[in-house]
Write a structure and sequence with these properties.
This protein is an all-alpha fold. It has one domain: Growth Hormone, Chain: A, CATH 1.20.1250. It is built from 21 helices and two strands. The protein has helices spanning 12-33, 37-44, 49-76, 85-90, 92-108, 115-146, 151-169, 171-184, 192-211, 213-217, 231-240, 242-254, 259-271, 277-302, 305-326, 334-355, 358-374, 379-407, 428-437, 439-444, 458-479, and strands at residues 411-414, 420-423. A two-stranded antiparallel sheet has the order 1-2. α17 crosses α21 (458-479).
Length: 486
């Protein structure tokens, strides 16, 4: 292997800026995709479960077209700033506005009694938030592949983004569960609707301020072809990219595993009735998650990315099954569930950290593969898969979760005072426990099947990277008029 691959193009300041940008973006995203959106729409906004389920399903289907389409537009972009940075410079401001509007519905429409008007507001605000989020998210993750031709640089950039997100981006849900408990117990003078809106304002100001660093402080270093591919060509490249297609199929199947996060919210809110308990339970896992970033190079030295994906899936099933069975008759007993869920969270946090890096790397590998095969790089279309899959997981799991609520006997009724009360059936709590700990991991196992045919590993991947290094050197020389040092 050539020593050229070990050159470090990305400095510490740029890595830190990229990480802070990811944390800022995810501060707001976690309010939407952290399992609380369904609770917000049904319990706080007072909307019917079937209306929420249908809306999220429709927008999830729209994402299957919207995200790749936006990715193709990004791939077609050519400016002196690059093809990714212009979008990162533009999007923070409108996204901040629609983050606030998304969570402002219960406050703006607090005197409106017509459910239809509330449903229309939900559709419009959620669609506009998702639209602008997509415009920023695809170029952001595309930057992880374009920021440097060095695989080690890319790993550092992705790790910085994920690490800083875990450190800062997750604060939104931490603050949320604490404020929800304080509100529910009358300790603070804020309603649940005001709590969500307050955090949305913080996400729109502080969060989007940090996100703007992605456009201001990062550079695109991988040389793009002079030719601008058409939008149709971008879609064709995605279809031809077999490894990417395998990732798409696997993640579409695995989107049902997001049910665990949805019903974790209902478990803490409606079964244990202490939202902030999740902070205690997740504490050991959070600490291990940060340490895991240091262990990823050692893990990758022993296993390839495909093997790590399989290890993750089977580990979740084994641990989830054990937790469900041990807590089968004691899932409301603090002395049982606290240590039990701590152990589960400890194991899952290790793999969550690894999975925050590995799939992003794998999509970067598929970009290299298509350049090696066709001469065209398609970061936009390829990383639209990452954003699409993230939103699909949230959309599918939230939509299915909303549809399941009546089936397991869980509903919310508005009382004359304007608040809501929870209505549960005889076995509702047990169903929530199963949907939190076991069922999603059984269904998620099916998503491993497509990876049997994934082959961007070992010597095959090594050869592709070396061939591309030589091509990039030649292209850089040609674009500088024959002077490699220009």
């Amino acid at each position: 292997m050539s020593d050229e691959k070990e050159i470090r193009y990305v400095g510490i300041k740029e890595n830190v800026a990229y990480g802070l940008a990811c944390a800022g973006q995810n501060f707001g995203y976690n309010l939407v995709a952290g399992g609380y959106m369904l609770l917000f729409f049904t319990k706080v906004f007072g909307l019917p479960e079937n209306a929420v389920s249908f809306m999220i399903l429709v927008l999830g289907i729209w994402d299957t077209v919207n995200d790749p389409l936006m990715g193709a537009v990004v791939d077609k972009t050519r400016t002196r700033f690059g093809k990714l940075r212009p979008y990162l410079i533009f999007v923070p401001l409108p996204l901040s506005v629609f983050t606030i509007l998304l969570f402002a519905g219960p406050v703006i429409l607090q005197d409106v009694k017509t459910t239809a008007i509330k449903i229309i507001y939900m559709y419009v605000s959620y669609f506009l938030w998702e639209f602008f989020y997509t415009i920023g998210d695809i170029p952001f993750w595309g930057m992880s592949a374009a920021i440097s031709p060095s695989p080690s640089d890319r790993t550092r950039a992705i790790s910085s983004a994920r690490f800083t997100t875990g450190l800062i981006g997750g604060l939104s849900t931490t603050l949320l569960v604490v404020l929800m408990d304080l509100s529910n117990n009358g300790i603070i003078g804020l309603s649940l609707s005001q709590v969500f809106l307050l955090l949305a304002v913080i996400a729109a100001t502080v969060g989007m301020g940090l996100f703007s660093l992605a456009g201001i402080c990062t550079r695109e270093r991988v040389v793009q072809s002079v030719k601008e591919p058409s939008v149709l060509e971008g879609f064709k490249l995605m279809v031809k990219n077999k490894p990417l297609f395998i990732i798409i199929i696997s993640n579409v199947i695995g989107s049902v595993s997001g049910l665990s996060g949805v019903f974790a919210t209902y478990y803490y809110s409606e079964v244990i009735e202490l939202n902030s308990l999740t902070l205690l339970i997740s504490l050991p896992g959070t600490i291990l998650g940060f340490i895991t970033y240091l262990l990823i190079p050692k893990l990758k030295a022993r296993f390839d990315n495909r093997q790590i994906i399989f290890l993750n899936g089977f580990s979740r099933l084994i641990v989830g099954t054990a937790v469900f069975l041990i807590g089968f008759k004691s899932f409301t007993n603090y002395y049982v569930v606290i240590p039990l869920l701590m152990v589960q969270n400890l194991v899952f946090s290790f793999f969550n950290t690894v999975n925050s890096v590995i799939p992003t790397e794998m999509i970067g590998d598929t970009v290299d593969y298509m350049e090696w095969k066709t001469g065209e790089r398609n970061e936009g279309v390829s990383f639209s898969v990452l954003t699409f899959v993230g939103k699909l997981t949230g959309s599918v799991s939230t939509s299915i979760g909303a549809a399941i609520l009546p089936l397991i006997g869980l509903s919310f009724k508005t009382v004359q005072s304007g608040g809501t009360i929870t209505v549960k059936g005889a076995n509702t709590d047990l169903y929530i426990w199963a949907l939190f700990t076991l069922i999603p991991h059984i269904l998620g196992l099916i998503s491993l099947v497509p990876y049997i045919w994934y082959n961007l590993t070992g010597e095959n991947l090594k050869k592709i990277r070396e061939d591309l290094r030589l091509r990039h050197e030649q292209l850089s020389t040609q674009m500088s008029g024959g002077n490699a040092d220009a």
